[in-house]
Design goal:
heterodimer; A: about 325 residues; mainly alpha; 13 helices; about 0% strand; B: about 300 residues
Chain lengths: ~325, ~300
C-alpha cells in the first residue's frame, strides 16, 4: 500500500490538517490558564513585592501576555516546556520524562488487554447470537460500560487487597503485582465497549455475501471466521482505538490517584491545583499531541484495512 | 403515540387481502411497539422512574436532615433499629439521605448539561448541514479541531480556572459535549434537505430558518432522542469523575461522585459509605444505557439486527 500514491497523498493531507488543531490546543491552554485568578507564587504568606517582581521577571511573567504567548510558542517549537513553577530545580520535560513511562506502561497494558479480551468476548457473543451466553456476556459488557472506574477501583482494592491480601492496595514498584489492579480497572470499560462493537459488526459481517460464498465453497467455520470475517469486523474497533486511547489517558488520572501511582496524571492534577502553569500546559500539550498523533495513525490503519477509503480518495 | 396499544397487531397479509377496519400506524407507533418488546429497556425505564421519584421525594419522607450529625451513631452500619437504614458516615450523617440528595445534583447536572449540549449541537449541526458548501466545511472543520483536544483535561482546567461552581459544571460539560450531537445532526440534515417535502416547502416560499425549524428539526427528533438518552449517563459520569477528583460540587452540596469519593476514604472501616452511593450511581448509568440502546433499536430500524 506504500506505493499507492493516493494513500501517500491521503496521509500528507491528514498530517497538514493537524497543524490548526495543534495551534488551537496550545492557544486555548495558554490563555485559559493565564486568565485564572491566583498565580503560581501565591502562598499562605504574601511574598515581599521585590521578591515577587524578581520571580515574575525570571519566568517572564512581567511581559505582555501576547509576548509571553509567542515566547512560549517558540519554546514549544524546540520541544522545551520550560521550568516547573512548583517543583523547583525540575523542568517540565524532566517531570514528563519521569511520569510518562509509568502512565504509558499502564495504558499500553490496559489497551492490549482490552483489545484481546474485548474482541474475543465480542466474537464469542456474535457466534452465539441470541442465546443465554450472548445475553449474559452483553449484560456484563453493559455493566462494564456503566460502572465508573472510580467505583471499580475501591471495590477491587477492598476485595483483593484489603480482605484477601493478594495484591498491594496501591503504590508502584514496576512489579507485576502492583500493575494488576490499575491495569484491570483501566481496561474494564474499554474491554466492554470493544466487546459490544465487535459483536455488532461481526453479526453484520456474517450476514454478508462474501461470507455466504466462503460457506458455499465448503470452508470450515473456523477458517471463515479467522480468514474472512475477522478483518472487516474489526474495522469499527480500530476506529474506536483513537477515542479509546484518549479515554484511557483521562481515566488514568483517576486510576493513578486512587492507586497512588506517580504517573503523568497525578502530576497534572497536582499541577492544576497548584497553578503550576508550565507543568499543566506541558502535560495538556503533550497528551494533546499524543492523542492527535494516535488518531492519525488509527486513520492510516483504517485506510489500509478498508480498501473502499483508498479508492474513494483516488476517484 | 400510545393510543393503539390495546389493538391487536395486524398481520400484513390481512392488509393485502383488503380486510376493512384498517388504520395506518405512524412510524412513532411502530417504534413504540418495538420499544415495548425490548424487556431490558422497559425494566430500565421503570427502575429509572422509581429512582427519580425516590430522589425527588425520598429526602422529605426520611426524618434525618442530610447535614444532621448523629453523634450516637458515627460510622454506624446499616440497621433498622438506629433508624439509619443504610448506615452513617464518619461524622454520623445518614447515608441514605445524603445519597438521595446527592442524586438530585447528579441527575440535575445530567439533565441540564445535556440540554445545553442539545441546544448547541442541534442548531449548529442543522445549520451546517442545511446550508452546506463553504459554511458547512468551515463549521465542521471547527468541530474536528475541537474534537481532537484532550477534552477531560480541559474540563479539569476549566474547573481549576473558574473555581468550583455548579453552574459552570453544567456549562463546561454541555459546551464540550455538543460535538457528537452536531456531527450526527449535520449528517441527518444533509440527507433530509434533498427530499421532496423540503423542496415543496421551498417552492411554497417558506424561508430557510422556517424550514429548519418546522421541517428539518422535527424530522431529526428520533436521532436526537436516542442521543440524548445516551448523553445523560455520560454527563453524570463526567460530573462524578470531577467530584471524585475533588473538582466538582462543593460541600455542603453533594453528588454521587463526591459521596463515592468520601466513601472510598473510609471503605475499610465502613464499606457501606462506599457501596450505597456506588450502587445508586451504577444502577442509574446502567438503566440509562439500556434505555438509550432500546430507543436506538426502536427508532432507527436500519441498525437493527
Amino acid at each position: 500500500m506504500i506505493q499507492d500514491s493516493g494513500m501517500l497523498r491521503h496521509s500528507l493531507q491528514r498530517l497538514l490538517g493537524l497543524v490548526p488543531t495543534l495551534l488551537m490546543l496550545i492557544t486555548v491552554a495558554f490563555f485559559l490558564i493565564r486568565v485564572a485568578p491566583g498565580g503560581p507564587f501565591d502562598s499562605e504568606k504574601a511574598l515581599p513585592p521585590e521578591i515577587e517582581a524578581n520571580l515574575n521577571a525570571k519566568y517572564h511573567l512581567d511581559e505582555p501576555l501576547v509576548q509571553q504567548y509567542f515566547r512560549y510558542l517558540g519554546q514549544i517549537a524546540v520541544l522545551d516546556f520550560g521550568p516547573s513553577f512548583q517543583y523547583k530545580d525540575w523542568t517540565v520535560n524532566e517531570l514528563i520524562a519521569q511520569g510518562f513511562p509509568v502512565s504509558l506502561t499502564i495504558g499500553l497494558l490496559a489497551m492490549a488487554l482490552a483489545f484481546v479480551l474485548g474482541t474475543m468476548l465480542g466474537v464469542t457473543a456474535a457466534l452465539r447470537q441470541n442465546t443465554g451466553a450472548d445475553y449474559s456476556l452483553m449484560g456484563f459488557a453493559m455493566l462494564g460500560i456503566s460502572i465508573p472506574n472510580f467505583v471499580v477501583a475501591p471495590l477491587l482494592i477492598l476485595l483483593l487487597a484489603v480482605y484477601a491480601g493478594w495484591l498491594p492496595a496501591g503504590g508502584w514498584d514496576w512489579g507485576i503485582a502492583s500493575m494488576v489492579l490499575p491495569v484491570v480497572t483501566l481496561s474494564l470499560p474499554v474491554t466492554a465497549y470493544i466487546a459490544r462493537l465487535t459483536r455488532g459488526s461481526m453479526i453484520e459481517v456474517l450476514h454478508s455475501n462474501f461470507i455466504r460464498t466462503a460457506r458455499a465453497k465448503g470452508l470450515p467455520e473456523s477458517t471463515i471466521i479467522r480468514r474472512h470475517a475477522l478483518r472487516p469486523a474489526l474495522l469499527p474497533v480500530i476506529s474506536f482505538m483513537g477515542p479509546a486511547t484518549a479515554g484511557m489517558i483521562s481515566g488514568s488520572v483517576v486510576i493513578e490517584r486512587i492507586f497512588s501511582i506517580p504517573g503523568l496524571g497525578s502530576y497534572f492534577v497536582q499541577g492544576a491545583l497548584n497553578r503550576d502553569y508550565t507543568l499543566v500546559m506541558g502535560v495538556v500539550i503533550f497528551y494533546g499531541v499524543l492523542i492527535i498523533l494516535l488518531n492519525f495513525i488509527v486513520d492510516l490503519i483504517y485506510a489500509w484495512l478498508d480498501p473502499k477509503i483508498r479508492y474513494d480518495e483516488k476517484h | 403515540m400510545t393510543k393503539s396499544t390495546d389493538k391487536p397487531v395486524l398481520d400484513p397479509f390481512e392488509a393485502a387481502l383488503g380486510v376493512s377496519d384498517l388504520k395506518g400506524r405512524s412510524p412513532w407507533e411502530d417504534a413504540w411497539h418495538r420499544l415495548l418488546k425490548n424487556r431490558a429497556a422497559v425494566y430500565s425505564a421503570f427502575i429509572m422512574a422509581f429512582m427519580i421519584l425516590i430522589v425527588l421525594f425520598g429526602p422529605m419522607l426520611i426524618s434525618w436532615e442530610s447535614d444532621f450529625t448523629d453523634w450516637d451513631y458515627t460510622s454506624a452500619p446499616p440497621s433498622v433499629q438506629s433508624g439509619h437504614w443504610f448506615g452513617t458516615d464518619a461524622i454520623g450523617r445518614d447515608i441514605l439521605v445524603r445519597t438521595l440528595e446527592g442524586g438530585r445534583i447528579s441527575l440535575l447536572v445530567g439533565l441540564v448539561a445535556t440540554i445545553v449540549s442539545l441546544l448547541i449541537g442541534v442548531s449548529y449541526g442543522a445549520t451546517a448541514g442545511y446550508f452546506g458548501g463553504a459554511a458547512d466545511r468551515i463549521m465542521m472543520r471547527v468541530v474536528d479541531i475541537i474534537y481532537a483536544l484532550p477534552f477531560m483535561f480541559f474540563v479539569i482546567l476549566l474547573m481549576v480556572v473558574f473555581g468550583r461552581n455548579i453552574v459552570l459544571i453544567f456549562v463546561a460539560i454541555g459546551a464540550i459535549n455538543w460535538l457528537d450531537m452536531a456531527r450526527i445532526v449535520r449528517g441527518q440534515t444533509l440527507s433530509l434537505k434533498n427530499m421532496e417535502f423540503i423542496e415543496a416547502a421551498r417552492a411554497c416560499g417558506v424561508g430557510d430558518w422556517a424550514i429548519i425549524r418546522r421541517h428539518i428539526i422535527p424530522n431529526l427528533l428520533g436521532v436526537v432522542i436516542v442521543y440524548v438518552t445516551l448523553t445523560i449517563p455520560q454527563v453524570i459520569l463526567i460530573e462524578s469523575f470531577l467530584s471524585f477528583l475533588g473538582l466538582g460540587v462543593q460541600e455542603p452540596m453533594s453528588s454521587w461522585g463526591a459521596l463515592v469519593s468520601d466513601g472510598a476514604q473510609d471503605m475499610e472501616s465502613a464499606p457501606w459509605t462506599l457501596m450505597v452511593p456506588a450502587v445508586f450511581l451504577t444502577v442509574t448509568l446502567y438503566c440509562f444505557n439500556y434505555i438509550g440502546d432500546g430507543l436506538r433499536d426502536a427508532l432507527d430500524p436500519k441498525d437493527r439486527q
